[in-house]
Amino acid sequence: MTSRTKLPNHGECFVCGKQSGSGLNIAFFCDENRQISATAVLQKRHQGPPEHAHGGVLFAMLDEAMGASAWANGYQVLAAHLEIDFKKPVPLGEEISLNAAVVQKEGRKVFTEGKIVLKSGEVAALAKGLFVECKDFFQTL
Questions:
Q1: How far is it, in rounded angstroms, from Cα 3 to Cα 105?
Q2: 12-16, 29-33, 101-105: lowest mean pLDDT where?
Q3: Residues near 28 by beta carbon (within 8 Å), at least 6 away in sequence
């Protein structure tokens, strides 16, 4: 069995924050390979098309998962470029899985990939992210 560590939430963060009243409150986990996973059930307030999730909400979830994968690998990063391919609509009220990992590092650039998987096992969305290390930015906070 794979061991997983729960990542800390970030207060008011829309995706993972416990104090964000309008947020998603998603708990992210990191495995021994520093890959990120999470599950979520989206509600009516996350709707885009009737009875399905808004693409912007899915995008935010993948942004957070891919950023968390960079941080789990020890990189203090900010998003520079994200792209997503929506493959299947995501029904509201159904558990979905998120997965993300770092796939490459070049200098300050950290390349990531992420996906959202439906309960059926079908991939609903694929994403790629370019994150840039910004250690100085985080030292000023």
A1: 25
A2: 12-16
A3: 6, 7, 16, 36, 37, 38, 64, 65, 68, 98
Rounded to two decimals, what is the model's pTM?
Answer: 0.90
What percentage of the chain reaches a pLDDT higher than 70?
86
The Cα–Cα gap between 112 and 102 comes to 4
Q: Which residue has the tokens 């990939």?
A: 113
Number of H helices, E strands in the chain: 2, 7
- Helix or strand holding residue 127 (H, E): strand 123-133
47-99 residue pLDDT tens: 999 999 999 999 999 999 999 999 999 999 999 999 999 999 999 999 999 99
How many beta carbons lie within 10 A of that of residue 80, not counting itself?
Answer: 13
| Whole-number Å distance between alpha carbons of 125 and 96 | 11
The CATH number assigned to the domain with range 4-139 reads 3.10.129.10
CA distances from 32 to 45, 117, 125 (A): 34, 21, 24
Is residue 121 left, alpha or beta, with left meaning phi > 0 and alpha meaning psi from -120 to 50?
left
